[in-house]
Amino acid sequence: MKQYSNDIIAKVYAQYLGQKVVYLNQTTQLTGVDLSGNMIHLFYIDDEEDEWLELDEDCFKLTLKPLSAISDEQAHAIGFLSAEDFIEYSRIYTEDNGKLSDYQYLINEGFDLPHRLLDGKTLNECNLCLYS
Prior knowledge:
The chain is an alpha+beta fold. It has two domains: 6-63, SH3 type barrels (Roll), CATH 2.30.30; 67-131, no CATH class. The protein has helices at 6-14, 72-77, 83-90, 100-108, and strands at residues 20-23, 26-36, 39-46, 49-54, 60-64, 129-131.
């Protein structure tokens, strides 16, 4: 599997601010990403105190949904007749060929989308997230 630079991983993670993360078997919310030198720092809220943690891929994962979990209502919101119609289209749906507002809507809804920074792969395909 191709290894992506921390710069690329930080840019992809930054698109998912507000999504749930699992860190050391604890679920919290991703609120910030910072790239300092060669280390990705993730900002999250824990016990109502701001804390920084260094990314350790063995203990940190974004928790996202596969595109196959899209509801008819969510598909309608981006102009598809049904979830089934969207799922057929989804493998070629990237930020380059979809409307940016639709792409951002799906990210905000917590869906794992193909990214051009990841060579058209999803985060799950790159082992950067778990599915809920």
